Amino acid sequence: MNDNMCVSASAPTADLELTGDEMVEQCSNGGDASPTGAELLFMDDKLPARTLHSLNMMRKNRTFCDVVLHVGNSELHGHRAVLASASPHLLELFSADDESKGSVRENVVTYHLNGGFDKLALEKLIDYAYTARLEVRGHQVKSVFLTATKLKMERVAKECASYLVHHLDPENCVEIRSLPGIARSKTFVAQVDSYIGQQFDEVSQSPTLLALPCVRVEVLNQTRQEMSLVSGDSLCHLVLDWVKRFHEDDNLNNLTEKTYLLYLALDNTLQDCAELPSGDISDTEIVQDYKKMSKKIVNPATKNRRKGQIQPAKPRVLLYSRTDTLEPETEQDWSLIASKKVREHTFLGLVTLGNKLVTLSVMLRLNQPTSPSPLPDTQVCTDHQPDMYHGLASMGSVKCGAGCANLNDNLLVCGGYDRAECLRAVEIYDPARNLWAAMAPMREARGRFN
């Protein structure tokens, strides 16, 4: 397959040779040849091509050129009318300059193009403006696409995007997805993302992807059941939302300098374990060590965050659902492109963080309490009815996450949570009589302790 790209704009069909009187149409007696009533109509289909050719020759000879574009140390001469006709960006630039100067105009105007314009790509596009023909070698298509995007030359950018999509492979797709300004072309982005998603097993092994910045995250789980139900896409979406909430203004280097330890809060959002309340049942040695490490790395973005919510005691499933109001669209691109399960409880994701391509390394960890509550070795039963089951009496109040202990063969239940409220209540259960009795409350409210 030819690696070069050749595109011709929809120019007039100048291949038709003029014959005889060169397409002179004469009206019959009393007939009209045109809406104006002209009796002679002459259509010169070759004139547009000849005019462009003449203008191009004048440009190359710097004849009647009235604009100079500076790119780095290079100068590119041209005619403002021609360049403005091909590029809406240059039209805006030239028009703004004319308005600012009023009637005072220079014979030749010089513009310094900033923003990383590529000289060779700009030359290709200037040639296209004068010839309606674009000839680009395969390795230059990306730079021509970028320059055409900056100049708002949509037709050229669309042709370049089509060529790049047609030549996607696991080695170059990540580099193409990283092109600046690609987010402006929704169709182009969707096609590249679709290819990456379908070929992510191969793409994940490419040197380009492995060289991307990596955000490392570990997510705590209370049970192995939770870990077995986790979906890779949902997990990566939750991590992406966490990054956007708390690290949107962070430098990417700050975000990748450590491994973050997160937990799932009641509102189904991930929170940093550095903010987990002390004394919580999940505040294990793993979390305490992480808190100490986090204090050594001071990040301005960690200030002024809302306090994380206490995680529920029942098993949860990491689910991603966006039901809140949609934020207004911006040019910033925050999206999950693809994800895969690398090994058991470990996932790899490819995301965009504010138009920057980044990988996510997410690992699930089981967070077991340091001193689990003792479990009774014998079942509750009565002496006179050893083989009968009895319904247990209800507690005085609804609660979860309470502290439990064996006190003289009775079950002592202290504190806990009634929804968001931490309790001081104490109750004791007598299995012999199947009765709950209220006791004096604790001095302080506590929950999830042994």
TrEMBL record:
Keyword annotations from UniProtKB, A to Z: Actin-binding, Kelch repeat, Repeat
Superkingdom of the source species: Eukaryota
MF (Gene Ontology): actin binding
Domain BTB residues, every copy: 65-138
Pfam families from the UniProt entry: BTB (PF00651), Kelch_1 (PF01344)
Repeat keyword on record: yes
InterPro entries: BTB/POZ_dom, Kelch-typ_b-propeller, Kelch_1, SKP1/BTB/POZ_sf
PANTHER family: INFLUENZA VIRUS NS1A-BINDING PROTEIN, KELCH PROTEIN
Protein name per the record: BTB domain-containing protein
Protein's organism: Graphocephala atropunctata
